[in-house]
Design goal:
Number of helices: 8
Strand order of the largest sheet: 2-3-1-4
Structural class: alpha+beta
Radius of gyration: 16 Å
């Protein structure tokens, strides 16, 4: 758990200060994404950071994992309303049975497919047992494009929660790139 807390503290620092290009990654892979931002890259980046800082601060300062209702109260309303309703217990069990039948590679592919996420499903990817990526950096390519780098423990990794955050923040087309 100490490694997780340190990773959260490092992520918080990067969210607030960005990083220099020469700073060494603490994880195995840096994965880059180019996001098209029709309404403006600056607003998209501000929303992404707003959500991630709430998640990060909540996890750093809460003694235990918050309930779903607590997450609803602390996360920005604009984000929460874009999430779909939670599954019923039967729907959730059916989905979990299907998900558990997939290989790690199939899970990574499924996680990249566009879908509307429930808040409970989305926030579960920040649980210490599930977390596979951390914010690394972002820079403006131009007023309508954003280059974002994510630190991941493996590649491919389940990136769907990250992509959902970009979509809800106003990003249009997002593609993984080599840079």
């Amino acid at each position: 758990m100490d490694d997780y807390i340190q990773a959260l503290q490092n992520e918080r620092s990067r969210l607030l200060n960005n990083v220099s290009p020469e700073e060494e990654a603490e994880c195995l892979y840096l994965v880059s994404y180019l996001a098209q931002c029709p309404a403006g890259a600056q607003g998209v980046l501000a929303k992404i950071k707003e959500v991630l800082l709430v998640v990060n601060n909540t996890l750093l300062h809460n003694g235990s994992w918050p309930s779903l209702e607590e997450w609803r109260l602390v996360l920005p309303d604009w984000f929460v309303v874009k999430c779909r309703k939670e599954r019923t217990p039967d729907e959730a069990q059916e989905y979990l049975t299907w998900w558990d039948s997939l290989s790690q590679e199939e899970k990574a592919k499924q996680a990249k497919l566009p879908r509307v996420w429930s808040l409970g499903n989305w926030i579960s990817y920040f649980d210490p047992e599930q977390r596979e990526w951390y914010w690394w950096s972002a820079r403006f390519v131009n007023p309508k494009q954003l280059l974002i780098r994510i630190g991941a423990w493996g590649h491919p990794f389940p990136s769907g929660a990250f992509l959902w955050l970009l979509e809800t923040s106003g990003a249009g087309k997002v593609e993984e790139i080599d840079d």
